[in-house]
């Protein structure tokens, strides 16, 4: 979809023209170096935000101990509203984070700090990510607006379109209710997926 294009849901509402496709996010990640420590870190951070649906503040607040590669999970200790939740991490993302952790160890960065940190071990600022993503988008020739929360949007839409029930999406996003999730999905471009799930026919046995 080119810049300025719009899609319509089943109710005629315009969908989010800034919704990133999986291919576009992968193009963003390919702009990050596979060898430079900051590139390895940034690839892992983008993957966590996209594949786990974390808010950028949640991702930057992760401690090393919150990530468990053996079980393929991470723990968001204080999400929105102070809620704790456990999120699944796919094997590809586990591998990317593992590469960053290995580089951290080689550089002697203490393991007691934030998972995603500067090369001096200090916390990353959200403003760094706000500048990083548009810069990567320009290098990847992505015309639409790219921002950190857009990765969370893409996660939610991908999850619904893969057939995940709304309560699963609700829990993954850390929402308080399914109603909140439905509104969220409608706003980010998955209204037609919500409608399709709601309107499926089924004869009660």
Give your account of this protein's structure:
It is a single chain. The protein is mostly helical and 205 residues long. Helix content is 50%, strand content 5%. Helix 7 (166-173) packs across helix 8 (178-188). The longest helix is centred in the first third of the chain and has 16 residues, at 37-52. The radius of gyration is 18 Å and the shape is globular.
Q: How do the SSEs run, as a string of H and E?
A: HHHEEEHHHHHH
Share of helix, binned? 40-55%
* Biggest β-sheet description: 3 strands, antiparallel
Structural class: mainly alpha
Percent range for β-strand residues: under 5%
How many helices?
9
Envelope shape = globular
By DSSP, the count of extended strands is 3
- What is the C-alpha radius of gyration, as a whole number of Å? 18 Å
The average pLDDT value, as a whole number, equals: 84
In the predicted model, the low-confidence regions spanning at least 5 consecutive residues are 1-15
Biggest sheet: strand arrangement: 1-2-3
The N- and C-terminal alpha carbons lie at a distance of 43 Å
Short description:
The chain is mainly alpha-helical.
Question: Which SSEs are present, and which pair or pack?
Answer:
Layout: H1 22-30, H2 37-52, H3 56-61, E1 67-68, E2 73-76, E3 85-88, H4 91-106, H5 126-139, H6 148-161, H7 166-173, H8 178-188, H9 191-198
Antiparallel strand pairs: 1-2, 2-3
